[in-house]
């Protein structure tokens, strides 16, 4: 079978590998029918040292169950399933609290903990299949597949940003970042009833989709000028919630500038810094809160799927390009160049 | 009249100053009957440069209203009142949300914004008297005065730590620090129903009072050993809430080590660092949250006072020494030496 590897920054290759097979009684083998490239894949695409490669790529996919281990009971051969970007047992104390990304099972974790598997491939061995996979009630060629695929990561991640920030009908929200996560954070804030949603982004096609998803205002300026414009839109005080969907220190500093006293900065994605200001001169003085983390998307699938199935929400609009496996390396480059917002892969 | 000044580290003096008087129509003049030294006063006591002094000291007091400006309506001459450590109008959007420490009124702020006033004195001009002062239904010599005085800062601050952490009946809590704020954070967590309250502190008399206030466990070890002991007490996972009542980087790092995935570190007092780890390797990976700030104690006075008046709670037990104004300099030194937990002043 064929699978995607990253050998180093800017160096993605699709190669032949041994077929994935069921190894443990809790595994399922899934033949991938739809996958995609994640914004988080762009961090190593910009910086991976060849000494740290090659890395098997892909952590978002939909596919058909082809085989199951003897203990798997919730999915069976022929089922169409979606896989979250984190493997979990869905039964431990953390999963029961909806924090599947902190699942206590020894086999739980992110896909990079499975160096011989990845979603940007023809097939994947899925550990803890009962906990991880969720059956989809549509056919593999349904027009809903792009939207359902977003349940594996990008929609759940945007939704987590809004949930972790406690967004509700009384909340003014700023979303920093017009990438796919940022746009779906807008859609999520709208779904949760936010009264004002300011999208900070400068790519017109993307901010246009952001308005379609529910942004009430768009601010294209960054830094001090962007902060001033958000404050002007909010009576001088900033917004209760800032959903930070970029991951850089400058985005964090921008968040500090526009969050309202008593408000919350909610971070998703993969922050590219470890230390940051949180003392009296930044977070502390006005009781600003910090929330967020890797999204427990498994916890949101049942909640969000009905809105996709009945057509209420179309998060799949973030996909603006489709390719087969051969086109994956070019897809990475197009996303890095911001020519493509998010690339869907049909292996 | 006499008032307390800090001239530099270790140098506190009580001096004669011009009598405080009402200046603005919204002011009240309060004759102080009970005041105290705050743990936060010990930070400058350890580090104040003489070039930055002298500073008028004291931000917690009870007293009798002696005069009022023409616009003051909620208190009158002869009333016994308590003053929170922040001046606020109690009517702006932030005050209505219970965030009095971010009051939008131009005269609002901390007492260090009033360089000619301070609570460790015979009298204080109180700005925004209607918003700031709260009438007490007892006499100045009531046995309840020490407990009622804690409403001006230390009890409200401990309570804020627990409230900001969302402590409830299903919460396991660790309190870091056996100072007066830490001990009253224990009392607050108990009041909010926490099922387990681990107090980290090594001063036997203080941890004894912590047990009386509701601590279910005491851990005297610090650092890695302390973290290991808390984990042992909590099935390996740490506690949902960590109330950080010390303010040092080592206390923050200790908090990171004992907070449960998905849990919250709630900080009160005055953090002595600005930058700290909050990235994937610390807060982010397990969706840890950060909360807290200067406590809006004004918001909690009406809620907490009944429990003091009916004898349910005795937060005044944190006072283990009493002095007149002459004894204030020695009181600072005793608190710095950890000989006294908290010193009450009867001017």
Q: How would you characterize this protein structure?
A:
Chains A, B: Keywords: Metal-binding, Oxidoreductase, Zinc. The structure is a homodimer of 347-residue chains. With 347 residues, the first copy, chain A, is of the alpha/beta class. The first copy, chain A, folds into two domains: 2-153 and 296-345, Quinone Oxidoreductase, Chain A, domain 1 (Alpha-Beta Complex); 159-292, NAD(P)-binding Rossmann-like Domain (Rossmann fold, 3-Layer(aba) Sandwich). Chain A is built from twelve helices and 19 strands. Chain A has helices at residues 42-47, 93-96, 129-132, 145-149, 154-164, 180-191, 204-213, 223-233, 249-258, 280-284, 298-309, 328-336, and strands at 2-8, 11-16, 28-36, 55-56, 61-68, 80-83, 86-87, 109-110, 123-126, 134-135, 172-176, 196-200, 217-219, 239-244, 259-267, 275-277, 289-292, 321-323, 343-345. In chain A, strands 3, 5, 6, 9, 10, 18 and 19 form a seven-stranded mixed β-sheet that branches. In chain A, α9 links the parallel β14 and β15. In chain A, α5 packs across α6 and α8 runs parallel beside α9 (249-258). The longest helix of chain A has 12 residues, at 180-191. The radius of gyration of chain A is 20 Å and the shape is globular. β16 (275-277) of chain A pairs antiparallel with β16 of chain B.
Average pLDDT, all residues of chain A:
97
Oligomer: homodimer
Number of strands of chain A: 19
Envelope shape of chain A? globular
Distance between the termini of chain A: 10 Å
Beta content of chain A: 25-35%
CATH class of the largest domain in chain A: Alpha Beta
Number of helices of chain A: 12
Radius of gyration of chain A: 20 Å
CATH architecture of the largest domain in chain A: Alpha-Beta Complex
Largest sheet of chain A: 7 strands, mixed
**What is the CATH topology classification name of the largest domain in chain A?**
Quinone Oxidoreductase, Chain A, domain 1
Q: Briefly note the structural class of the backbone of chain A.
A: alpha/beta
Question: What is the largest interface, and how many residues per chain?
Answer: A-B, 37 and 37 residues
Helix residue percentage of chain A: 25-40%
- Residue windows where pLDDT falls under 50 for at least 5 positions of chain A: none
For this structure, what is the CATH homologous superfamily of the largest domain in chain A?
Medium-chain alcohol dehydrogenases, catalytic domain
Task: Tell me the domain tally of chain A.
Answer: 2
